[in-house]
Amino acid sequence: MESLTEKVLRYQKTRAGLSDLVDELAPRVYQFPRRKMGWDEDACGDFYLFVHPRLIRLLDRFRDQGKPFESYLCAVLNWQLRNFARDRRRGQTNWNVSLRLEDSEKESDDSTPLLRVPSEIASIVTTDADRRNFLFLVLKCSRSLDPENAQALAPVAGISSARLLTLASTLQGMRAARETRLETFRSRRNKAFALIRVLETELMSFQGDEERMAALRARLARARKRMRSAMQRMARVGLAPTNREIGAVLGVPKGTVDSGLYWLKRKLASVYDPDNLRLA
Question: Is residue 145 within 8 Å of residue 164, measured between CB atoms?
Fold first, then answer.
């Protein structure tokens, strides 16, 4: 059976078999962030879209020096993952909310401030594909969506506010188990924190009793460990809808949501300044 290294070398000589190579490399690239960083499938999809345009260059640059292509691929993906993770951290704060709703200069008749999407975004989201991708982005933030926000966002997304709220409600129902899980870990964290404060107070009261102090220190260490564990588990609970869930409620493939969000964020990059967190 032909090895991956042999397939790459044959491609370099004949320029044939690129589609088969990409198909074989795709799952390796897609799963790489999960194996290395424990990232979820949405982040894996973003990483694959980040690397995909570089695959042909990666294949062309490989040189047979006695090591298999898999070793070269792993080294390149490590490098690309560092770059991607750096950019992802830089943009994460900006896209946690992703949309800033501003008070309009004008107010409605009942003196309630009107909300509007920043004009720069509205001027960029012009095509049907942009509006569809913008809808993906809005649903990604559906946990904080309310009727007022929906009225401002729905026209840009090309749907009615009632439809947008219905989609958000459906996604909220799909997240119910995660919300319950988060509340469980939050309760554990709070109980551990309360116990830590009690034990710290008791330690100050038994300065002369070494045996008692040793027992209190052991209990304190266990309580702190429980609190750290609960906080780590809280951080791993994904509350935003996954791209797969958004695709499910809209009836589109997950890959469409992956690529739509990726390209919309690139298109909107000119709208916000990471240093000023204009969209955060």
Answer: yes
